[in-house]
Design goal:
The chain contains 3 helices and 2 strands; from the N terminus they run βααβα.
């Protein structure tokens, strides 16, 4: 996640979203339930998730979603994206009006 250190220096105006599992324990249960991880890959993924969760708390995300219920998380994500799209459209319209 080192690229996130550059977020404050970007010259455009994106929005940053962090999506996470409710907890490390919930993530571990999901990964074990899928049956796709070796013990080594599971430990690596969980170690990486711990680091990323800790780092995310220090970064300037505009939105944070906890993926505790996939349908609810999807609806929240859709609302965030739609709101941003509407905001960008209003900005573009205002820019085009000011050029006339």
């Amino acid at each position: 996640m080192h690229w996130t250190n550059l977020l404050p220096f970007l010259s455009f105006f994106p929005r940053y979203l962090w999506m996470t599992a409710p907890s490390i324990e919930a993530l571990e249960a999901r990964l074990r339930g899928r049956g796709t991880e070796t013990p080594e890959s599971l430990e690596l993924r969980l170690a990486n998730a711990r680091k990323e969760m800790a780092m995310a708390a220090t970064l300037p995300f505009d939105h944070s979603l906890v993926n505790d219920d996939p349908d609810r998380a999807y609806e929240k994500l859709k609302a965030i994206v739609n709101a941003r799209r509407d905001q960008c459209q209003r900005y573009r319209f205002a820019q085009s009006e000011s050029k006339q």
